[in-house]
Amino acid sequence: MRMFAVLAFAGLLSACGGVVVTPAPVPEGGARVPQSPVPQPAVDRIPPRTAVKNFVAVAAQVEPVAERLCRERRRAANCDFQIAVDDRPGQPANAFQTLDANGRPYVVFTLALIADARNRDELAFVMGHEAAHHIAGHIPRQQASAAQGAVLAGVLASLTGASEATIQSAQRVGATVGSRRYAKDLELEADKLGTLVAYRAGYDPLKGAAFFGRIPDPGDRFLGTHPPNAQRAEVVRQTVAGLR
To answer: What does DSSP say about strands 95-99 and 105-110: parallel, antiparallel, or unpaired?
Structure first.
């Protein structure tokens, strides 16, 4: 039944225009920002057909807003957003931003996240947040930080007379530490900018940020990729207050 439900849900999406149903593109180096935390399954989940209509409607409104804001802030960047759905069965509720081989930005939702969203405002907030990662240039910033971490770790390891294998291992660890060094700051920046995207698209970011009440709180773990939920919700509240 679960497999049938997933395929039927994907079929509903495929029948709607403006949304690409596809596995997430896998660019060289796997460049993408961290996935959004997985929400708890919605007890009062809306009907699948309604969920699909909500997602298609939100994509149609949010994408052009995100594109315009991207062109305002990153004139040399590819701002032709593709809103995509990863329809692979068994994927958890997640959303992320990535780039294809040609540098085109993708905002990808799994079927589970579309099904778990309570309303269009939540979908718009998450979509705006993921688009904001590209608008703010987070992937190249993370790549640069990872490269710096790898070089530093490799140099330190080589100075100790470590073997080539140990140096390579240190570089991998350094790259991970480097990529996560500013991860929480980038998430907060995406929350702020994503709030603006959702607001300009005609949605209520405060209602959309209720999403934070249903995802596990990452707390303040060392080298974690996401800030505490309360801090993120406060950023949304402050941003909305400045827009009104």
So the answer is: antiparallel
| Residues 6 or more apart whose Cβ sits within 8 Å of residue 238 | none
In this structure, what are the phi and psi dihedrals at residue 66, rounded to the nearest 5 degrees?
-60, -40
The CA radius of gyration of the chain, in Å to the nearest whole number, is: 19
Give 108's strand partners. Answer: 84, 96
In angstroms, the CA 221 to CA 107 distance is: 26
Question: Rounded to 10 degrees, what is the CA torsion of 22, 24, 28, 33?
Answer: 160
Q: How many residues does the chain have?
A: 244
126-164 residue pLDDT tens: 999 999 999 998 876 665 544 444 444 444 445 566 576
Q: How far apart are CA 95 and CA 194, in angstroms?
A: 13
Helices (H), the chain: 2-14, 48-73, 111-116, 120-135, 138-159, 164-180, 183-200, 205-208, 229-243
Tell me the three-class secondary structure of 58-94, residue by residue: HHHHHHHHHHHHHHHHCCCCCCCCEEEEECCCCCCCC
Could you tell me the pTM of the whole model?
A: 0.74
For residue 103, CA distances in Å to 22, 28, 79 come to 17, 10, 9
